[in-house]
Amino acid sequence: MVNKFYEKMNIPENCNVGSTIFKKLFYENGTLTSSDKDIFTNDIEKITWKYSFKEENLNIKRFKNEELDYEEIALIEVLLFKEARYKKICEIVQKTIPYPLLIVLMHEDKILLNAAYKRINKVDNSKNTIDNFAYSKWINIHNLKDNEVSFMNSIDIRNFSFINMYKFYQSFVEKLNLLNASSITGDFEALKDRDIGEVNKLNNQIEEINSEIEKFKIDINKEQHFNKRMDINIKIKKLEFKKNDIIAKLNS
Fold it and tell me: Dihedral sign, CA of 90, 93, 98, 101?
């Protein structure tokens, strides 16, 4: 199923690696808790280093300065037994493998994409600092929504920036951010010409509001007093109105 995604990326054959990454790597080089090890044992079936993007195989210049090291980008595929703890899995993989990573999680007929910007840790050069994580929603490859079809048609790497490896990576992350915003608006194409900074800002505001609403919904289920339940309901309604205003800005 994931081959459809890779076909859309149009990755040259000389970028193929296809090497299994054994869980032992994470046990030995990561700082895994017993809970983390439980996730790797019970949730992950297989981890594969699928592709490597670098100057030698894509003719894209490396990018390195005091803050950033984008000499090589690895695409890592993670086949899951269970999907629930995918965020923790991505965090562990991103923190353990020093390269800039694109992660493709697979579970049944679905894939989920992850990226994370990394900076050089000035205290310990052997480690990276991760600024933020970007996740798609789960995508059913055999039942794509309209915005997902548009996203899949946009990820041909020949259309990414070839200025340097950092810009190349940034191209994918921007597509991922547009996909996330279009999951709200329903229209990927309409967002393509928008300022990506503005799209990200509005999308982040919506995500924050969604988190607040979820917390209030948990509170209302616990609350026994009618008046307090009404107060929480009013707060939820206000947040929903605010969210709709932001969605309108995304659509405008």
Answer: negative
Report the pLDDT value the prediction gives residue 30, as an integer from 0 to 100. Answer: 61
Strands 110-120 and 63-64: unpaired
Task: List pLDDT tens digits, range 107-165.
Answer: 999 999 999 999 987 776 666 788 889 999 999 999 999 999 999 999 999 999 999 99
165, 60 contact by CB (below 8 A): yes
User: Looking at the DSSP assignment, which residues form a beta bridge with residue 132?
Assistant: 117
The torsion angle over the Cα atoms of residues 16, 105, 143 and 181, rounded to 10 degrees, is -100
The Cα–Cα gap between 43 and 83 comes to 7
DSSP string, 127-178: SEEEEEEEE---EETTS--HHHHHHHTT--GGGS--S-HHHHHHHHHHHHHH
Q: Which helix (H) or strand (E) holds 11?
A: none
Domain ranges of the chain: 3-191, 196-251
228 three-state secondary structure: helix
Which amino acid is present at 153? N
SS3 215: helix
Residue 10 in contact with residue 51, Cβ under 8 Å?
no
Matching residue, tokens 């480690």? 127
Give CA–CA dist 188/183, Å, rounded.
8
Judge if pTM exceeds 0.90.
Answer: no
